[in-house]
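Input (Sodium:solute symporter):
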Amino acid sequence: MADGAMTATFLAVIGGASLLAVTARRLRPVDRLPALEGWALADRSLGPVWTWLLLGGTIFTAYTFTAVPGLAYGNGAPAFFAVPYTVIVCPLAFVLLTRLWTVARRHGYVTAADFVRGRYGSPPLALVVALTGILATMPYLALQLLGIRAVLTAGGVYPRGAAGDLVMVGLFAGLAVATYRHGLRAPAVISALKAVAVFVSLTAVCWLVLARLGGPGAVFEGAARRLGGTDTGTGSAIGESALLLSPEQQPAYATLALGSALALLMYPHVLTAGFAADSPRTVRKVAVALPAWTALLALFGFLGIAALATGVRAPEGGAEAAVPMLVDRLMPTPLAGLVFGAITVGALVPAAVMSIAAATSFVRNVYVEYVHPTATPKRQVRIAKAVSLTAKVGAVAFVFGLRDQDAINLQLLGGVWILQIFPAVAVGLFTGRLHPRALLAGWAVGMVAGTYMVVREGFSSIVPFGPADQPLEVYAGLAALALNLIVAVVGTAALERLGVPRGADKTDLPSRLAVRRRPETGANNP
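Output:
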C-alpha cells in the first residue's frame, strides 16, 4: 500500500497536469468562429517544439512504457523490436507525413479519409478508411487505462474495489473536461509535462539501477542467469540465448518492426498530431528529432531486463507490472510517486488525442458525409466534442466490463487492421493509378485474412508459414498487407481493361509516380 509521501507526489504530478490543461486556451489563442480544424488541429498552429512534444507524447504511450519492459522481462531480446520500429517511423514520417500535411493543408483535409475521398473520388473507400481508423483506435484508447491501472496497482496507489474505479473515473474526468473545452490544445500543453516528468524520472531510475547493480554488464548477466533458471554462476547458455535473437526469431522480429512502423503512421491520432504542425518544415524537423523518444523507449526496455536481474516477481500474466514493482522496490517513496505520476500523465496525452481523432473521423467522414451534409462548422465541433466524450466513457466502461486480455487482443487486431489502409493512404500519396474499387477489394481481403491469421494462432500477431517442422514466422499484418496489395494491383489491371470508371481526383497530385530533375542541382526528386 502506498504511503503518504508517494501519494502526495503522485497527486502533485496529476494536479500539475490538470492545471496545465486549464491553461490550454492560452496556447496560440485566436479569435475565430468555431471550426473543426481549430478544435481538432489547434488551427494547424503548433511550432517545432510543441509538435515534437505532442507527436512524441502521442506515439509513445503509457502502455508502451509498461508493455515493452514487460515483454523484455518475460521474453528477453524479442521485446526490443520496438526500438528499430520507432526508428523506422522517423524517415517514414519525414517523407509521408510531410507530403500528407501539404496536401491536407492545401485542401482543408482534417483526416486521412478526407484525403482518400479527394484522391480517388470514392465515398465508400473513404468510409472504410475512417471506420478502420476508429475501430483500431478504440481498443488502443482502452489500453491507456489498462496501463494506468497496472502502474497504480503495482505501486499500491490504486485502491481495490469501487474506490479504485472512482480513481480511474476521476483521472479521466479532468482530461475529458479539458479536451471537451480546448480540443487538441489540452493534450499539447500536457505533453510538455509528460516529456519533463518521464525524461527526468526515467533518468533517475536508470541511474539508481546501475548504481545498485554495478553497471549494465551486471544487469544483463543477472538477467541471463534468471532467464536460464539459475541464480548462480557466471551465466547459463540458456539465459544468454534468451537475451539474443535466435535465427528462427529474426524474420518475426524484422517483419514485426517493419509492419508496426508502416501501421503507426496510419493511426488517426498520429496523423492528427502531425496535422497540427504549422508547416511541412516543422514536420521534417520533428521527424528528425523523434529518435530522442526512441532512446527513452530503449531505456524502458532496459528496465525490464533490470527488473528480471533484481528478482522482481511480477504476477502471472501481468509482466507489465515488472517496472512499477522495480521502481517501488528501489526508489524512495516520494520519487516512486513521481515516476507513477509521470507514467500516468503519459497515458493522458495519447488518450486525449485518440478520442479527438476518433471523433473527428466520425464527424467528417460519417456524420457530414452520410447524415447531415449541410452541418455548419459550429455544429460539427459540437458533435465532435460529444463523440470525443463518448469515446472516453466507452473506454472506461470497456476496461471495467471486460477482461484485460480482451483489450490486448483487440489492440493486436487493431494493428493488423490499420495496416490495411496503407495502400489507399500512403501509396495514394505517390500514385493514383490504383483503382478505388480494387483498393476496396484489397482492403476487404487484407482485413479478413489478417483477422483469420491472428485468431487462428490464439491472438498472436506472429504467424507461421511453411513446413510444420521449420516454419517461417512473420508478422500477420504484413502478410495481410501483401495480399491486400496483390489484390489491389491485379484488380486495377482488370478494372481498367473492363473500362470501369473511377472518381475524379481533386488533390492536384500526380496520377502516377514520376521522377523529376531539380535544375539547380541535377538531383532526382520524386
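The two ends are 59 Å apart (CA to CA).
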